[in-house]
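Bit of a strange request maybe. I'm writing a small parser for structure token strings and I need a real example to test against, not something I typed by hand. Could someone generate the tokens for this chain?
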Amino acid sequence: MSSTITMTGPLEPRSGWTADRCSMARTLDVVRNRASFLILREAFYGATRFEEFVSQTGLSEPVCAARLRELTDVGILRREPYQEPGQRTRHAYLLTEQGSELLPVLVALMQWGDRWAQDGLGAPVEFHHAGCGGRVGLELRCSGGHAVGGEELQLAVGPQRQQRS
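Reply from user aminoacidic:
Good idea to test on real output. This should exercise your parser:
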């Protein structure tokens, strides 16, 4: 099974253009590293407090603080003050809309890891649909509703680029 994507229009031949403004590279510039993905995992699992992120990710406090700051600075998380009686004001870290839209990315990484990076013991946890109990997985689908494999993908110039040409 091949997952080679077909280039179309001005993108063919591949050697004729560079992937400037690459969406994948820009996303990785924002999310950056393993620590950020672990923090996002915990945010999706309901963590909001610094101590929860440290204990659940296994990151050191300085690394966790730096990653939380970065994710907040780029708008993936937002800080919200809270204060327990008799305590100083602290901040909770909550997913923004931008951060929430990373869920399929994390599910895809988990799904790949369950298949290819496990120790033969199977998936340690699974996602299930609360409505029917069915297992949740990710797959590529076109706007017509068809499941699409990598060998069926065509890369085309985006609408914004077409307007500039």
